[in-house]
Design a protein that fits this description.
Chain lengths: 229, 345
Amino acid sequence: MKILAIETSTEACSAALLDNNNVISRFEIAPRQHSQLILPMIDELLAEAELKLQQIECLAFGCGPGAFTGVRLATSVIQGIAFSIDRPAVAVSSLTALAQAAYGETKIENCLSAIDARMQEIYWAYYQLDANGLMQYQVEEQVCKPELLKLNSSQVDWIGVGSGFDTYEKVLDAKTLDNRQSKQMRWLSNQFPHASQVAKIAKSEYLAGKAVSASQALPKYVRNQVVKK
Amino acid sequence: MRVLGIESSCDETGVALFDTDNGLVAHRLYSQIEIHAEYGGVVPELASRDHIRKTLPLIQQVLDDASMSVDQLDGIAYTQGPGLIGALLVGSAIGRSMAWALNIPAVAVHHMEGHLLAPMLEENPPEFPFVALLVSGGHTLLVDVKGVGRYTILGESVDDAVGEAFDKTAKLLGLSYPGGPALAKLAESGKQGRFKFPRPMTNRPGLNFSFSGLKTFALNTIQDHSKESRAPYNLDLQTQADIAYAFQEAAVDTLLIKSCRAMAETKYQRLIVAGGVGANESLRQNLNLKAKKLDFEVYYPRAEFCTDNGAMIAYAGSLRLAAGHTEPPIIKGMPRWRLEDLDAI
């Protein structure tokens, strides 16, 4: 089982190569340079793993939400590759990739994942671990002002992750007071969606038959109100 | 050599396949006009969102039309600029990563070079050197073309592009977006001589253009004859048509005067006209008459290759690929890119 994954929806640009249970990756915080970095990163990974692109069975990408241009970059690169070598693709939510990483690091089974969406808003989703060790939506991706975030969960122990917390720590702390056990809000700072998580999540999606054709691999913008009439 | 061309610089997705042995094999175009019509202009984010949905299906259709598989491609060309950055990046990223995955060369094409080489896709193509008049919603350029990549800009618009002036005037006349072609249609029933619009910047030397004043002149004329003092204006049908006529006459005449001046300055025998406004019938008729009188040849691409298309990108790319030009595996979009900065082949 070999999967190639990329994630470029935030300031971070990353690529990962999953070979059964082994994952190698490249990761760089490099705003506005993703389009220059991404193909050379993949080249490096293939060379390191001594694999040819044709040996990849499935492509995966972080489909957002995040910066529109970044989300489209990952999507169009994967579209181009998947179409050319005739392989399926899996779109993985960038918020889910964050949640999966947060679980990996803390083993806390609930997660509030939030990405700074600019314009004083955040993209967010709320997750819970399933029996297979994967984070699953309890609340799907949304976009709203952090002041309007609404968790229906009772007082559980969850971990926060993503740039939304870096930017709006205080607001989110106050907003979620009733939805957590501890007085102190726990969250991981400076975390960005990573292609290794995208690859791991994509593996189970692929095995579950949820991969799509190249032209069906599309972004998930979440923010759809983009023009004023 | 079989070259796939991808165009996504603005509001049309174009894909084509050009074979250096057999010429243009297949081409497809998807226009987003309907998406942008309700906003009265191109919304960049919506354009990008549509390109990413349409590019691969169009590529598949072109390959099907050509009865070819993707493995049979020898190179990929894509528009890298100038244009809308988000839109450019979709075509560039798909094109560049396809070439990377197929292990074939990729080449980045300048959108305006595509336009000015488009007449080469027709039978009886022009030889170098020639003067190119590039007229569209985004550009008004007179270019001295000595060869592929050997361009000197002789003149350009200092404000609105001529196509933009057509569209804006059409909007003032209450025509729906994009109004340029609708204005030309309306002008057919206009009377000559009722209104006289200025020919901006023609009474002084030089080859630059200015079209924003023409639009303002149209606005003043409309207001003088409208029952309403502000938009939506209320004109009788004949007045509306007469204004359209006078506007088009002035715009075309201005292009004519400058083009003839450029022909005289360069002493070339050939003029090519490309870009969306190049499809304008009045421009074509008047230029043909002038050319006959002054003894030079005019070349046009077919109407569908006047506007944005993938064929011109595949063709321009094939010339550059054949000359050994290739791109490293780096994806780029260049919203601004000077035609004169291109390398000669």
